[in-house]
Amino acid sequence: MTASLLCPNCNSDLIYPDQNLMVCTQCGNQWDPSVMEENPNTNRVLDANGNELKDGDSVVIVKDLPVKGFLKAIKAGTKVKNIRLTDGDHNIDCKIEGFGSMALKSEFVKKA
Q1: Residue 74, CB half-sphere, CA atoms under 13 Å: how many?
Q2: What is the pLDDT of residue 37?
Q3: 65-100 pLDDT, tens per residue?
Q4: 106, 47 Cβ separation under 8 angstroms
Q5: Alpha-carbon distance 74 to 51, whole Å?
Q6: Which residues contact 39 (CB under 8 A, 6 or more apart)?
Q7: CATH for the 1-42 domain, from 2.20.25.10, 3.40.50.720, 1.10.260.40, 2.40.30.10
Q8: Which of 36, 37, 41, 74 lies in the 20 to 30 Å Cα band around 96?
Q9: Interatomic CA distance for residues 80 and 95, integer angstroms
Q10: Residues 12, 25 contacting (CB under 8 angstroms)
Q11: What is the tens place of the pLDDT at every residue in 6-56?
Q12: pTM above the 0.85 mark?
């Protein structure tokens, strides 16, 4: 019955039914599966720690990132303000001081 369902919060398959709700044993999230099927949230962008990102958030780079055409890399710990979320592989558009406009992958940033 629950084999095809995953927790919308942490994507765990360790869930169980409780009356008309589903409960995740990993994060404790509770949700109504009938509501989730009507309103799938497929446009969620998660950072390296699993936190949801939104337009206008500030993030910190977690890994040195080499940039084509530049001799230096974007250093880990660089703070990026006012991000914009986009579709595609590089799902964050931003401006980084010293580099200009960039497209980043959300897996290389954490929410500040």
Answers
A1: 25
A2: 54
A3: 999 888 999 999 999 999 999 988 899 999 999 899
A4: yes
A5: 22
A6: none
A7: 2.20.25.10
A8: 41
A9: 7
A10: yes
A11: 888 787 888 999 988 899 888 888 888 777 555 555 568 899 998 999 999
A12: no
Token duo for residue 27: 């994060």
Distance between CA atoms of residues 89 and 52, nearest Å: 16
Residues 6+ positions from 5 with CB-CB distance below 8 Å: 13, 15, 22, 33
| Token pair 């095809």: residue | 4
Percent of the residues in the chain that have a pLDDT greater than 90, as a whole number: 50
CA angle 39, 43, 48 (to 5 degrees): 130
pLDDT of residue 5: 75
DSSP strands (E only) in the chain: 15-18, 21-24, 30-31, 45-46, 52-53, 59-61, 79-80, 84-85, 92-96, 100-104, 109-111
